[in-house]
């Protein structure tokens, strides 16, 4: 099993910078809060397909996202792999993806997760346990990220994309620990961690909306 490429993720970040700033007007707030070194987990709300590339492009560190295997089709397959992204099968316990994600963190890298599991309202209303598992298992702090302004708007001719040159806000929050300090990875401990995470992410999203007026 090959660990995701850190160099590839940095190339992906540079591609993201060019694309995101070329097509839209990202406004990035709080990026200085991201720890400069060591393992970090980005927890990103997910209401649009550009959320992942947007975060990759504006984050201060290269990011390895867990991305559904359905996205790895045609030429996107070798491309996403080359830029250090992690393919995950959401229909099962994908041990290969879990191993690769933990490898990213054990190497001191940044793992990006959409904790809601699928694209939806982007309000962190329903979290899966995967985020808690990675955070408790690795001890990596979680940085909440709210992407606002990317959701589809009624009446758009091209519904797949936000209007070109429109503003998209990306708000980074304060890092926090998901575990209770005991290092326990029991089902109860993970459920408690998920509850703590949900409160933190929801509070950050509310703060981000107030901050940006979205």
Automatic annotation (TrEMBL):
<dbReference type="GO" id="GO:0005886">
    <property type="term" value="C:plasma membrane"/>
</dbReference>
<protein>
    <submittedName>
        <fullName>1-acyl-sn-glycerol-3-phosphate acyltransferase</fullName>
    </submittedName>
</protein>
<dbReference type="InterPro" id="IPR002123">
    <property type="entry name" value="Plipid/glycerol_acylTrfase"/>
</dbReference>
<dbReference type="GO" id="GO:0003841">
    <property type="term" value="F:1-acylglycerol-3-phosphate O-acyltransferase activity"/>
</dbReference>
<keyword id="KW-0012">Acyltransferase</keyword>
<dbReference type="Pfam" id="PF01553">
    <property type="entry name" value="Acyltransferase"/>
</dbReference>
<keyword id="KW-0808">Transferase</keyword>
<feature type="domain" description="Phospholipid/glycerol acyltransferase">
    <location>
        <begin position="40"/>
        <end position="150"/>
    </location>
</feature>
<dbReference type="GO" id="GO:0006654">
    <property type="term" value="P:phosphatidic acid biosynthetic process"/>
</dbReference>
């Amino acid at each position: 099993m090959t660990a995701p490429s850190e160099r590839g993720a940095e190339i992906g970040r540079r591609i993201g910078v060019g694309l995101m700033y070329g097509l839209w007007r990202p406004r990035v707030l709080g990026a200085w809060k991201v720890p400069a070194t060591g393992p970090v987990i980005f927890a990103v709300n997910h209401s649009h397909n550009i959320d992942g590339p947007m975060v990759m492009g504006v984050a201060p560190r290269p990011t390895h996202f867990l991305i559904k295997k359905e996205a790895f089709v045609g030429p996107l397959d070798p491309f996403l792999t080359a830029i250090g992204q992690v393919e995950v099968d959401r229909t099962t316990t994908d041990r290969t993806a879990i191993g690769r994600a933990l490898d990213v963190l054990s190497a001191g890298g940044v793992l990006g997760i959409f904790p809601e599991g699928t694209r939806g309202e982007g309000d962190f209303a329903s979290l899966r346990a995967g985020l808690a598992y990675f955070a408790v298992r690795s001890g990596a702090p979680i940085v909440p990220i709210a992407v606002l302004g990317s959701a589809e708007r009624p009446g758009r001719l091209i519904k797949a994309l936000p209007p070109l040159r429109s503003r998209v806000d990306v708000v980074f929050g304060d890092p926090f620990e998901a575990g209770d300090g005991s290092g326990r990875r029991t089902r109860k401990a993970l459920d408690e961690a998920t509850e703590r995470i949900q409160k933190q992410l929801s509070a950050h999203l509310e703060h981000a909306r107030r901050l940006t007026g979205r």
